[in-house]
Amino acid sequence: MGFPMIGEKVQIHSYKHNGQIHRVWEETVVLKGTQSIVIGGNDRTTVTEADGRTWITREPAVCYFHADYWFNIIGMLREDGIYYYCNISSPFIWDKEALKYIDYDLDVKVFPDMTYILLDEDEYERHRKDMNYPKVIDHILKKNLDYLLQWIHGRKGPFAPDFVDNWYEQYLLYRP
């Protein structure tokens, strides 16, 4: 599997459980790349949806992926603070083409004051049935949602004070 190198620009590919592509982020700069953690930064990167529509991210972001946890975290730097968008997902893999993961629909949006809302529960239930998520996957996802909420409450990992700001400073070293 290997891992992406620091300073390398990579794509991020999100898939659905059935193997269909969900979304592609065109360019993210790797700020840390190990077998277990990838931290990246991007700003105004092109995102392509499964249906071919494209859009451009609005603000700088620091992305956090872990090989042992079934979630990834995007910290978005906005004028009024850092917002987090957390995807319940498979752990990442790196195959030299892109950093890849399976998106399992459930999302958590975290506000600068660390309050949060759970999103897309209805989409998760629909896809769980339509794509036949195995019971073991359902259990793993719900357990990892609990871990994620513990991280938020404990301000662990990307939710720690200064985590996103410090990695964003690193990202600025790689911008043209």
UniProtKB/TrEMBL annotation:
SUPFAM superfamilies: FomD-like. Keywords: Hydrolase, Magnesium, Metal-binding. It holds the Pfam family DUF402. It comes from the Bacteria. Mg(2+) 1 binds at residues 87, 103, 107. Residues 18-155 form the DUF402 domain. Its EC number is 3.6.1.15, 3.6.1.6. Its cofactor is Mg(2+). The active site is at 23 (proton donor). One of its GO terms (molecular function) is nucleoside diphosphate phosphatase activity. The keyword Transmembrane does not apply. Mg(2+) 2 binds at residues 105, 107, 120, 123. It catalyses: a ribonucleoside 5'-diphosphate + H2O = a ribonucleoside 5'-phosphate + phosphate + H(+); a ribonucleoside 5'-triphosphate + H2O = a ribonucleoside 5'-diphosphate + phosphate + H(+). Coiled coil: none annotated. NCBIfam families: PRK13662.1 (NF010183). HAMAP family: Ntdp. Belongs to the Ntdp family. Has nucleoside phosphatase activity towards nucleoside triphosphates and nucleoside diphosphates. This is Nucleoside triphosphate/diphosphate phosphatase.
